[in-house]
What does this fold into?
Amino acid sequence: MNLQRPETILLSPRGERQGEGRDARLRGVPFGRHARRGMVMIVTLIVTFALAAMVLVLCRSMSVEMQASDWSKDGRTILGACRFSRTDRYSTCLVPVPGVDDARESMVRVIASDPRRNLHNQRFSPDQRWIAFLAHDLSYASTSTVYVAPTEGGAWRAITEGTWFDDKPRWSPDGRVLYFVSNRAGITNVWGRRFDAAAGTPVGEVFPVTSFHAPQFRLTPRTVQMDIAITATDLLLPMTESRSDIWMLDRIDR
It folds into this structure.
C-alpha cells in the first residue's frame, strides 16, 4: 500500500503517538485514505500502533466511504457514517479494530440506515449501549432529527421532533442527558433532553441549556462546521462576538 501515490489524498491526522515503548498509546484515529478511481470514492481506515511502529489496515473496500466520528472505550470499535456508493445516503456504521497480529481486514457493519436521509454525528453513550446520531433529509434542509439506537442495532428512539434544525448530539458524562444545538427558538442555542439508559427512552420534554439572545455574544452561525464538548462541570462552546460603535464628526465644514 503506497500512501504517496498521486491519486491518494491523506486527511488531516486525528491521532498522534503519546509516549514511547510500552507506555505508548493511541489518541484518536490517525487518518483515513481517500483515493479516486473513476467516479468511485474509496476509503481505507488505518490505525497506527506506536508500540509496534506499524500500520494496521481496518477496511480497504473498493466501494465504502466512511467518516469516523467516535471510538469505543475499549478501543475495539470505530463508529461513524458510511456509504457504499456516491448515490447512497450515509448510514450509521461500526468497524471493529482487529488485534495487532490479525492480518484480516475488518468488515463494515451497518447499524442504522434510511433511503431518504443522511445519518451523521454518531456518538457512543458513556455505557456504550446506545448510539446518538443525526438524521437529515436533504429535501428538507432546514430541519433534522436527533435519534438514539441500540449499539447492536434495533428500533430508533426520536429525541427531537424533526421540526427544527437540531445538530451535534452529545452525551453528558453520566449518559442521563443528551445535549444538542438547535435553532428552535429562532437563535441557535444548546438544548437538552433527559434519557433513561435502562429503558432506552427519552424522559420529559426538551429543555434549554443556554440562552444567548443578545447580538453581541452568540454561538457561531457555522453550525455544521462547529462542535461542542461536555464535561462533568463545563459546557465548551465556540462563540462569536459582534459589536459596533456610532461616531459623530464635529466641524466637518472646515
Q: What stands out?
A: Confidence is low (pLDDT under 50) at residues 1-44, 46-57. The domain at 118-241 is CATH 2.120.10.30 (Neuraminidase).
